Amino acid sequence: xxxxxxxxxxxxxxxxxxxxxxxxxxxxxxxxxxxxxxxxxxxxxxxxxxxxxxxxxxxxxxxxxxxxxxxxxxxxxxxxxxxxxxxxxxxxxxxxxxxxxxxxxxxxxxxxxxxxxxxxxxxxxxxxxxxxxxxxxxxxxxxxxxxxxxxxxxxxxxxxxxxxxxxxxxxxxxxxxxxxxxxxxxxxxxxxxxxxxxxxxxxxxxxxxxxxxxxxxxxxxxxxxxxxxxxxxxxxxxxxxxxxxxxxxxxxxxxxxxxxxxxxxxxxxxxxxxxxxxxxxxxxxxxxxxxxxxxxxxxxxxxxxxxxxxxxxxxxxxxxxxxxxxxxxxxxxxxxxxxxxxxxxxxxxxxxxxxxxxxxxxxxxxxxxxxxxxxxxxxxxxxxxxxxxxxxxxxxxxxxxxxxxxxxxxxxxxxxxxxxxxxxxxxxxxxxxxxxxxxxxxxxxxxxxxxxxxxxxxxxxxxxxxxxxxxxxxxxxxxxxxxxxxxxxxxxxxxxxxxxxxxxxxxxxxxxxxxxxxxxxxxxxxxxxxxxxxxxxxxxxxxxxxxxxxxxxxxxxxxxxxxxxxxxxxxxxxxxxxxxxxxxxxxxxxxxxxxxxxxxxxxxxxxxxxxxxxxxx
Length: 617
Known about the structure:
By secondary structure, the chain is of the alpha/beta class. The strands form seven sheets. It has a nine-stranded antiparallel β-sheet with strand order 1-2-20-21-22-23-19-18-17. It has a five-stranded parallel β-sheet with strand order 6-5-7-8-9, sandwiched between helices. Strands 4-3-13-12 form a four-stranded mixed β-sheet. The two termini are 39 Å apart.
């Protein structure tokens, strides 16, 4: 048997130290101290603007009149710092502060990046709100919630045509709106270009010097489940310490300035903290990808990856699935993407084994070796980086070990183990929500994550931990049998790839386990129907029903008992709703919200009255 060869990559943390507490509790830290880190993220921006002023920090393709994207527009480190200083002066002139921050409605673009940097220089917190709350939502309820929670002094949006309806409906008319293009006549509107021309005074440098580790750099909202989203406080200490933790866990970030081509939204911590911060901290370059892992936009991502060769590449499983499929036949994509990438990294959901196999096959075919596919565990409240794997032999659900400087606490909860966090990268809490903040920290100051974990190998703790679902998602059947939702979902998604986007498991206090399946657009190819056929027709077609019937029977044959046996399933033709909190704009399904808003279907499934229910024979 031929040994698997991986492209050389060094893992920074491979050993841990563990101590035993009372009642089965364990405390684990990396066997490596956290190195010093700057007091503020702008320290790194200033440093690189001096060290390599002409290097590109951000780039994005110019948008043509017909909506397509043309040549790259570049902003260097020195240009970014200069622009940020002008913007900072404009914010200071307006008297903005922590109680009157900036809310950004825009998607990822150069103006959004510069506005964020300007806020950081001025010491004025900013909040990138989910663009979907303005462009997809019909009631703007979550946008109103963000605005009422933060009480901003200024709102920024890229395009009056795209964001105007949301501004008119949800933004108070006494608030100033800064726009890159267009005007909203109901509000005082300022052009972004005008803000960029604000004359700089000594107040800018004074304001930047006045910021420190405890200064709030930004607010990031959680996706929300049964409650409205919470504003997670992100201080300079959280952000800078987390970037240093990443450098020590992933040494290649310091060995070569990272070059990213990235679509991940900046209102999420993965794109907005992890990746946006990475290029500033390490003197790298971020090419903004206007594509996404959707049928309509994946072509733009593939085009960019044929042209820009990343040194590290981040995506969610659906993105890697699309790339894996394209690489099977696209030689130009394989050649460029694999030319210098040192590491792939996925997060957000479990990745099905067929995706790994396809990626590895293309890599071995093109470059004669595999690229390490890495992952870890984190959350908005941890900056987000918390755990990272220790070697390239990663399997689905592997998480790894804690980053340097962070301590984890493993607390038994029934037959599960909850992981809790403590460290400089942990949020001090939720903005203007003292009760919810106190509820999330235990008596020792550890943050309760709600994530369940178990050891990859109990005889070798240095391999680290693997994901074992969410504590709150797991439930018992009427028989008292415990259902572990996370691993069961991952099993179904893996077995059903590439036709399953996500699965919601049902059965609380019932005798059997059910599944509500959100299919991917790929099911249209199974149906043999016209491209414009209604999804209800696609899902009821003979070939699609037969495929999922076969899948259920396969799962039933491999189940080990009532808690792992899917007794019935329903294919959902209604996509998850962002207004109801069923899905984030990154595509992550919120199990609790789906169960809440589709309770009638859940009841009908278990009562045997739901139409089109599939059952294994």
